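Catalogue entry: protein
Contents: sequence, fold tokens
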Amino acid sequence: MSAIDIRRLHDIDGIHEAARVLDEVWGEQGTMPANILRALEHAGNYVVGLFDGADLIGASAAFFAEPAARSMHSHITGILPGHQGRGLGRQLKEHQRAWAVKRGVDHITWTFDPLVARNAFFNLTTLGARATEYLVDHYGAMADAVNRGDESDRLLVTWALAEPPTSIPPDAETVAVVAVPDDIEVLRRIDPAAAAAWRRRLRDALREHLASGHRIGGFDRRGYLIVR
């Protein structure tokens, strides 16, 4: 894991630089406008930059949920392409966890595209968060370079900060496995129709299992592990 500095962004120049970095990651202007980041930060929410020396290479923003829930929702995190794959996602999540616990937060939630296998593995296996809800076309049509041309289905996950991470269920407890493509991002570029078909299959399968009372118990190289 590469060591970086994660610091609160409290000056307007840093806020604007973070907005620019997020635009570069998503390939779209206005991904997370500077005025929204500024408002979130000023209200006491989690708005940080990831620094490699003096260079801002990523940013993350999260906001508090309703007080009774003692929860925080992590809305966006982006790291510039040249710095991805260095273990920075894990380092950022541990920083976010410590920040939240210090403020009496019990849970952090966030969403991710359930077709992206590496994100499913990171969220459900590496961090041990729990998938709690399947959200169909959650954001509607999105124009950024990452999501353009696809429906914005998302899995909502909950990370219980005071509990041990969930573990991969044994085969004896796994009632089904729901596969995902190895690399949906490449597939979207070379065969959009096949990528859209994967979206529909995964949506139908996971929603059917969740509606029947099953839950997503984890993720491994085979796909989503469904348990009772």
